[in-house]
Every structure is written in structure tokens, then in C-alpha cells.
Amino acid sequence: MSSAAEQKAVRGAAPGTQGQRGTNGHRGEPGALRPPVWPGAPTPLGARFRVGPDGVAGTNFALWAGGAEAVELCLFDPADTETRLALTELTHGIWHGFVPGVRPGQRYGFRVHGRWDPWTGARWNPAKLLLDPYARAVDGDFALPPEVYGHVRDWPQQQVADTVRDDRDSAPHLPKGVVVQDDDDWADDRRPKTPWADSVIYELHVRGFTRLHPDIPEPLRGTYAGLAHPAAIDHLVRLGVTAVELLPVHQFAHEDHLLRRGLRNYWGYNSIGYFAPHAAYSASGTAGQQVGEFKRMVRALHAAGIEVILDVVYNHTAEAGEMGPTLSLRGIDNRGYYRLQGDARRYADYTGCGNTLHVVQPHVLRLITDSLRYWVTEMGVDGFRFDLAAALARSMHDVDMLSPFLAVIAQDPVLRRVKLIAEPWDVGSGGYQVGSFPPLWTEWNDRYRDAVRDFWRGALPDVRDLGYRLSGSSDLYAWGGRRPYASINFITAHDGFTLRDLVSYERKHNEANGEGNRDGTHDNRAWNCGVEGETDDPEVNALRRRQARNLLTTLLVSTGVPMLVAGDEMGRTQGGNNNAYCQDGEVSWVDWSLRDEPGPRGLLELATRLVALRHRHPVLRRRAFFSGRARGADGLRDLAWFTVRGEEMTEQDWYAPAATLGLYLSGRDIPGRDARGAPVTDDSFLILLHSADRPASCVLPGPPWAASYERVVDTAREDQAEAPGGTHRGGDTVTLPARSLLVLKVVE
To answer: Mind spelling out the 3-state secondary structure of 229-263?
Structure first.
């Protein structure tokens, strides 16, 4: 540092005067009355409107800030005039007080006082207004001007800029929490409670799914109300999905590097308010109305038999690394909320987003579990998909399946009963944990994705891995009482190519993201059918449509829980962008006009038929793994594998190069009983997958497997409105066109 004054600034200068309160507790209004603060209670955390002593209505405020020296509650009137009230009661690290007369709709935040010493991880700065981590509604958007940074962002010596405190007031630039009315007991709601084995998940973005829908009124498009509209729900019901998995709806902020490029965080994996529905998705207002609108959306989906699963981001926050803004947790207790390195000025980053929440800390664990229970009990949701769940399962450093987070979830009477989906990896050492999460948990199975993609693009050396993936991934999940539905099977997700792009591009085309096409994965496992990108070649386009049908059919006849991505059933494209996280526009929005085009319409018809087929046949929704053993005198097994010769596969066949695989699913050997205790039986199916670029002659297994078969699905056909029909005798030879899939039902 060049001077004593600068050195003092680095180690912690005294706070400036801009934005500090006057003797009356108001900024800029000497002589105004300040409301009283009664002791209140340390629980529940956050702001809760209730009746206080002597029947006086008001709001109780409680904030955990364990290492702080003082906490001020900041109330804002409609003109944004701030009133600061000291919370003097401290119970077990929780600062609390009851303010009479404060009612729902009141906007508020906190200022937290303490040491400024980034070298030891202390980053308290009372000049920065802080969002309540328990705020249940947020009013305003997050811009990131220099004033919202706790340090001097433009300090000449950038290598130490994060250690120089910025004393400018951030309140004019920061969204405020909103006090919300508790007025809903969900007595009229009926949760679908779809069993895992019967589930079909549909991943969608609240804004992107509805933004271009022509039958949804313009003011409702892109909102919770838009998703609750009959036109949106009708599509989901017709398709037959049982659950929507919503990309993040917790209040989130946009990253600075995106704002500077004129872009926004579209996906929302940058949470800052774990109790608040993202305000920008509300059609009814942001002064608490977003809470009721979200609840009405959940009710409407439940009434249609559709569960609501939230994609949640508890592994990191929008405050990023040491050069990031001070919005909430960093200013409340940086060392208490975040994992820090040995050099406490730096953050441990297992997420690739600059910081990692320190879930081992009891108050952080409480924040997460309180949030989860809130969304279940008060907002009506049915489950969660945990982004980078391995980061939550870390104890001190390593991923630990006996970690506090997983232990708390396992014993919680509310959370252990909802759907729990892990994205079973993070970016840290040892973070890849597919197949490792304990019972109660399901997992995104990326090994299923990779094997199916590789098979249909002709890149598998043999079919061993494909066999495991089609039959429920027993090599990953047949332990500890886990079931086939522990595998969430997917071929595409929000992250990566769409289904149409998977058969149209081999290379990513992310130039619009402004990062020189460096972002996004290089490992697409895609095949463009001979031409990169859109083409007018009718043969190439016909092949692409067939490949899309092959991939979609494989997904929906595989054992496990299938996950579709919104728009894939209609051939949505992102123009080859495999990382559209910042594309809030037509690149990412569902194009509903595709329903009127012959090719996409055929794919939608096939998807609808396949989902219905899955719902009708329990053999496609098994609740236990296949045994592969013969149970009857005729030698039939519940699962058998066949070569093109119509013979059961030998050990040698599994290791030989092959482009064709047949699997037989027996409907007479389904474990378990129905609700009345009767055995579960079903039709049997033969599924033939052929990925070679030339036709193949295939012998159909004869008795005892089947005397005859009926065609149910043939991906070589363009018309998919109805089943192809037609029968074959066992022992007949059928021709499988190049790159096609045939589903046959045993009829006798």
C-alpha cells in the first residue's frame, strides 16, 4: 500500500457517514417519530406478522448473525425513506424484536455491524443493506452498481480491492424483503402423491414455457399465472406427464458479467432468497402478491393431477467470490455462512460459482431445511431436485454420505416423504457421486444419457453398458434397498443440446453468450446426421426426425423414471447453443408454432402415445430390479436379451461389437402386488434397437417367448398418430430399417 491511510482502509476503516441514521432513527427526516421495538421472540426466523402482547398486531423480526456486534432493522416507506431500529435482544446468536403496527406489505432489510477484516473472513459493513435470508417475498430487481459491493470495486490495486471497505449506502440500489400475510392452510388442496415408479417428469422454465403461448393472455405469459392457465395445463395433461420440474424459482440475481454484456441470468441458478418466489415471474405484483400467485399455480397443477418439483440451488449464492457483491449472507456473517479456505480471505469453491455454503454449520443447515419445509408445508410443492447435491453432502471437505445434511433429511418427518432428486456431482475433488446417494434419494443418471446417446450415434464399442441403462441401472442402484426408480433417466436437460439440436449439431454454437464460444461442454456426444446445423436436404431431415424418435422412444420404454424437457416433444431448437443460461429470448422460449408443422407434430404424437403406453403397462414401470432368472418350467425369465439371430445373448455376445440389441420384458413376472393384494401381471414386450446405417434382418424369438407379436411402435414410420399395427409369428424374420427401433407386444 502506498500510504498509512490506504493501509488503514485495507484493515478496516471506520464507517462513513453517508446513509447513517440520525438521532431519531430516520434518514433525512429529523424529528420524525420512531416506532417502538419490543423484545419479541427468536423464532421463527425472518419476518412474521402476528398478534403480539395485549392483542397488538405487528411483525416479529429475527435474524441469525452469530458474530455480529449490532443489528439494525431497516423499514422503508413507499417513498423509500428508511427508518432504522436497533434490535437489542440477542438469543443464541439470533437478534430479534417485535415492532407494533408493522403489517403485511411492509418492505424491510437489515444492517449488520461488526469488524471489517477480510484477512480473517470478517466482512461486516453496516453501509450495506442486507436482504433477510428468510424473506418470503422480495420487491425490486438486483442491479449491481458499485454501491452494492462491500469493498471498493474499482480500487487501483485489484489484487487487494476486496479488502478495502466501501462506505457508500447500498439501500437505494438493493431490493427489499416484504412482510407477507400467513393466510393459507391448504385445506382445499389435494396432492397427487404419484408413486415414483409411475412418474414421468417434465422439466420446464416458468417464463420460457409460457412466454410465446398464443392461447395464454399476454399479461400472464412468462408468469406463475401463465403456467396455471388452462392452455398450459392442457398441454401437460394431454402429454401425460405426472410432474413438472421447475427451473429455479427462488429469488435470484443476475451476474455482473452478464449485465455488462446486456444479458441476464435466464436459468436462475444464482439464488439469493431461499423463501421467496422469484418476483419477475409474478403477474400480480411484487409486494407479496407473488406468494399467493405461486400457491394458486400449485393448486391448479395439483387439480390436474400434476406434482410440482422445484430445482433448488442451496450449494452457493449470488454473492459469488471475494470480489462479488454484498447482498445478504456475506454481510450478515461471512464466516458463519460460507466455506472459507485456509486463507480466510478466499472462498472454498466446489460449485464453480465462487462460493459454497457451509452446510456443516447448524444455522446454515437450519436455513436450508427451514426453506425446504416452508416450500412443502406453506407453498404446496411435492419435491426438490438439488443442484450440485454433492456439495451439500460434503462434511469438512470430502463428500460424505453420512453428512449432516443427508442425515437431517433422512429423519425429517416432512422432507423424507417428498420426492428428492440429486444432481449427484459437484466440481470439487471427488465430487462425482452417481449411484452413491442413500435410499430415499433418486439421482439424475448421466451414465444413462451418455450410453443412449453413444448407441444411437454409433459410438458404443459393445452393448454391455446400454443393457444396464435400459433395465434400470442395477449396477448403480441395486444396493441398500434402492429401486429402479432411483434412476432419473434423461437424454437431454436444460443444460446442453435440445433433442432436435442433438441430432442436428455436433459442435456447440454459443457465440451469442458473449464468451467467445468457450462456455458450455465440448462433450456433446451428438451426431448431426452429416450436416452441421439446419439444412434443406430432405434425406438429412428425415434421418434427424427418425433419430429423435429413436431417442425419445428409448427413454420412455427404459426402466427407471423418464424426464422430458419442455419443447423437446415438439422439436424445439436453440440453434446449437448448448449453454443457453443467459438467453432470455426466443432461443430459449418454447416455440408453440411447432405444433402446426408436420414433423414436430409427429414427434408430439409419438411422445403422447409413448407416455400413455407407459401408464398402461406396469412392466414398463417396475418397482423392483429384474432377476434374470427363470421362474417357471418353460424357462421364461423376467428379462432376456436377444441377438439378431433370435437367440439369447451369451457372455461373448455382450463383449462383441454390435449395433442391434433385443430385450424381452416379461409381464407375468412383475414383483409386488396391487393395492388389493393381487399379483401384478401385464403384457410382455420385445424391444429391438438397431443403430447401424444399414438395414438388418432380425429373427423374432419363438415359443416359449411368444407365438406371435403385434407392432406397437415403429420409429421408421413418419406417421406416429396411431400404432403401426400388423402382426408377426414367433420365428419370423423382420427387417429393421437403418437406425430404427421397434416395440412389439406379445399377443399369444
So the answer is: CHHHHHHHHHHCCCEEEECCCEEECCCHHHHHCCC
DSSP letter string, 175-200: -EEE--------TT-------GGG--
Helix (H, G, I), strand (E, B) or coil at 79: coil
Of 452, 525, 526, the C-alpha closest to 487 is 452
Q: Which of 423, 465, 653, 682 is labelled catalytic?
A: 423
What phi, psi does 595 have (nearest 5°)?
Answer: -60, -20
387 part of the active site: yes
| CA–CA distance, 337 with 361 (Å, rounded to integer) | 7
What per-residue string of b and e applies to 655-686 under the rule 16 or more CB within 10 Å gives b?
eeebbbbbbbbbbbbbeeeeeeeeebebbbbb
Q: Taking phi first (over 0 means left), then psi (-120 to 50 degrees means alpha), and beta for anything else, what does residue 628 get?
A: left
pLDDT tens-digit map of 241-295:
999 999 999 999 999 999 999 999 999 999 999 999 999 999 999 999 999 999 9
CA atoms within 13 A on the CB side of 29: 14
89 CB-side CA count, 13 A:
16
**Paired residues of 632 in beta bridges:** none
Task: List Cα–Cα distances, 636 to 56, 664, 667, 678, in angstroms.
Answer: 74, 10, 11, 21
Domain definitions of the chain by residue range: 46-179, 629-747
Q: List, for residues 646-667, the tens digit of each pLDDT value.
A: 999 999 999 999 999 999 999 9
**Can you give the pLDDT at residue 338?**
97
User: CA 207, CA 388: separation in Å to the nearest integer?
Assistant: 23
Q: Classify domain 629-747 by CATH number.
A: 2.60.40.1180
SS3 for 293? helix
Percent of the chain whose predicted confidence (pLDDT) is above 90: 89
Terminal-residue alpha carbon distance, the chain:
87
CATH H-level, domain 46-179: superfamily? Immunoglobulins (2.60.40.10)
φ and ψ at residue 407, rounded to 5 degrees: -65, -45
Q: Rounded distance, CA 39 to CA 441, Å?
A: 42
How confident is the model over 99-148, as pLDDT tens digits? 999 999 999 999 999 999 999 999 999 999 999 999 999 999 888 999 99
Select which of 166, 307, 387, 669 is catalytic. 387
What pLDDT score does 635 carry?
75
Please determine, for residue 633, whether its predicted confidence score (pLDDT) is greater than 80. no
Q: Report whether 223 contacts 289 (CB < 8 A).
A: no
Residue 32 confidence (pLDDT): 53
- Any catalytic annotation for residue 511? no
Select from 196, 185, 63, 228 the least CA-distant residue to 129.
63
Per-residue pLDDT of 356-388, as tens digits, reads 999 999 999 999 999 999 999 999 999 999 999
Q: Where are the strands (E) in 216-351, listed by range?
A: 243-246, 250-252, 271-277, 307-312
Give the number of other Cβ atoms within 10 Å of residue 247's Cβ.
Answer: 23
Q: Is 512 exposed, middle or buried (0-12, 13-18, 19+ CB in 10 A)?
A: middle
Q: State mean pLDDT over 572-578.
A: 98
Q: How many CB atoms lie within 10 A of CB 103?
A: 11
13: pLDDT confidence band, cut at 50, 70 and 90? Answer: very low
Per-residue pLDDT at 187: 79
Sign of CA dihedral 236, 237, 242, 248: positive
Distance CA 243, CA 301 (A): 9
**Nearest-angstrom CA–CA distance, 174 and 355:** 21
How high does pLDDT run on average in the chain?
Answer: 93
What's the CA gap between 496 and 580, in Å, rounded? 8
Q: Kind and range of the H or E element at 570?
A: none
